[in-house]
Amino acid sequence: MEDYLILAIGAGTAAAFLVVVLIFLALRPKRSSRLHVGIPETVLLFRNGEVVDHTPDAAELFNRTILTGMGWDEVREALSPGFPDLPGNLPDHLLTWSSPNVPNAELLAEPSGSRLHLRLRCTPEGAANLFRARCQTDEHSRLVDLSRNAPDALWQTDLDGNLLWNNDAYDELCQDAGKSAEDSSPIDLKLPATRAERTTRVSVKPDGQPQRWFEVVSRPVHDGWMHYATSIDSLVNAEMAQRNFVQTLTKTFAHLPIGLAVFDRDRQLVLFNPALVDLTHLPVDFLSAKPNLLSFFDHMRENRMMPEPKNYASWRDKLYDVVSAAREDRYCETWNLPSGLTYKITGRPHPDGAVAFLIEDISAEISLTRRFRSELELTQSVLDCFEDAVAVFSRLGVLTFSNAAYRAQWECDPDSAFTEITIVDATKDWQQACDASPIWPDLREFVLTLRDRQGFEADLIRKTGEPMRCVVQPVAAGATLVRFSTVAALSEHQLPHQKEHRAVG
After folding, report:
1. Pick from 377, 380, 431: nearest CA to 404
2. Residue 171 to residue 229: CA distance in whole angstroms
């Protein structure tokens, strides 16, 4: 009887256990028929739209330590690179997605009431691929940090120009421009027509801030374009300052009578003024076309505005020596043109290897100098014809002029003297060659005085016994003329003879 009782109790217990198992299986969520045994998976458990639990490896997937409280939008954003077709709202029925970018990757959504199991499965492709992926994790993280924290704005667009990705600097640029990265780009950039790299200079005008300039390099990638924007505000400001400076120089040089031609380091004409056109007779359109240095001088030669060298071919080859001399600030020549004009050509160095040539018309100055020299030569030749010895002293007492009779009589050649001959030096020579006379101190004082003076004359006797008369007269600019005449010559002109010095007037 006891055996039957034990069997009955055991059968009841087994039946109760079977009922419990059946109830558990009935209440357990149904697994997808595509579940593969042994495939690793990462699971997120949602309740009321927020993550409440997850497998330990899920933290690596989202690069954060705390996942509790994450919503569907954050999860969708993290998974969208591998699963771009994820819906905007939390799935409410069983769905499965295959990744177009990651082979053998699958995402499964299993909703059950207020709960949702989100399972990520990825079939391993072998130990080698798994090892390589692990090794590249650090490099990937480093590249992500570099791109996101780069000071220059970086962003990626598809073939139609739609934004796919951007870094933090691009977001800051959008904020400064008062725009959203998703709405429109702060940089008006037209995509190249061909799949080739292109550099574009663009400007952005933030609200209430100065205009900013960027140089954008657009490079084609497999699914669109990658853009790199570098700030060039300093470069643009420097170019504007240089442009304003050149305009100021141009306005200043426009009124100069000296022709100016500035050649850059590549020997291209970059600046000229109107006086250069007047002096060289070169067409304005030719100069505006920025000719090189050789073409510039070739056209001047064709216009006969430079001397014809004996061998123009060799002179043309030596033109670079001229440029080198100008860069060292030691080039200066005078050109006597066939037309009778005289030009002074000066080379001056400029920064950054540039060189400037100054062309000045000195015809009037040369003509005046030649005329003045001719008059001096005529005056000298006339005075050299006089028998009287004549010497002129400046207001400072320096001998500035003498005739041939003076140099012969007193055996003096001022032109060959190492130092200037003063009235003190001259009176010492005269005093040594003549008998004693009281006029020498008075003569020195007369030459060096600055007040109104009245000329005088005195009779002298040379130690050779020859009588001589000295006539001292003031002339223009405070100078003094001293004339020595022999008594016989004076008597022939019936001039008065006096033994003592007396005033002339």
Report:
1. 380
2. 13
